[in-house]
Amino acid sequence: AYRRALVKPWNLDPHRLASAQKDLAAVLLYGGIETALPPQLQVWGQLTPKNNLEEAILLLFILITKAAHKEIEWDPDIMDHLSFALSMCGGFDFLAHHVEQVLPGIYNRAERWYILALCYSAVGQNAIALDLVRKIAGHSESKHKPHIPSLLLGAKLCVNDVKLATEGINYSHEITELAANDNKPFVAQAHKFLGVCYSNVAQFSISNSERGMYRKGSLQSLNAAASIDNEDPELNLDTGFDYAKMYCNMMSGSSVRGWKLLALIASDIIDIALDEATSTDQLKL
């Protein structure tokens, strides 16, 4: 019905037309039924949308362009629908492009940079994502309320690079100091990232005392995270792994029991990774 209404030569005003296009996009995205375009509407050859998702994205691109040219008023639902649609097909680079097109004032700078950082992180461009997080946490935004989600993203990005462990510690500390009791999920994740970053720093510490201090901090942070969210299997494995490493170090690496414990935890980590892998990935392994 929406398709028939949109192709009829009615002289709809821009806002009513945009409303119909947005409603059709929502039905295509969330309706749960795949409905191909009828032959009479397949007029773009190979460029014709092949499924509901492609048709919805095309409609939302049209609406975003209209909003950018001020032909219609900005509607946040359009970006919400587009974000969902592009996340379904991995089109985060396209989403970043359209976020950059959004008129100034729709999002404040921190929100815009945060959304862009998420997009770049999703496509593996972590360096660009981290630079955007640094902007949010930088001096230019110091007068504004701290943006906790971006700090959490920064901590997460630093976890996988040992060279960035100290920066990750700073982000995590800031979250634990700023987040209130009603932000327990943020606090739990911050403690988790803090524990991993401490562990990363400990690996490259020169003195035994410094290494011991960071490992102790790692265990304290992981325990704090586990006390808030004790249903995170990855967190429990991180804690157990750190305890096992500390035990081996205390025994100067000569404890068979400690090495067996490390091997057992490593085996559990591999099992979890295999469970999360697709069947194709498992065949490759």
UniProtKB/TrEMBL annotation:
InterPro entries: NPG1-like
Domain of life: Eukaryota
Name of the molecule in the record: Uncharacterized protein
Organism of this sequence: Opuntia streptacantha
